Amino acid sequence: MGYLFKATSINVARAIYAINWFDIAPGLTYISKDLGLKLIQLGIATSFFYVGLAAFQMIGGALASRMGAKKVAFIGLLLLGLGGIFSGLSLSLPDLVAARFIAGSGSALFFSPGLSILRDISPPESYGLQVGIYNGAFSLGGGIGAFGWVFLDKAVGWQMGLIIGGLLVIAISIENFIVLRGSREEKVERSGFGRKMLSIVRNKFLWILSIATIISTFAETIGGQFLVYYGENFLGMTASQSGFVDGVFLTIGFAGGLLGGHFLSNVRRRRRFSYIVLIVIGISFMLIPLGRNFVALTVLAGVAGFSVVSGFSILYVLAVPYVKDKGMVPFALSFVNFIGIAIGSVSPIAFTLFTDRIGYAYGWVILGAVGMALIPLLFFVKET
Question: What is the pTM of this model?
Answer without folding.
Answer: 0.75
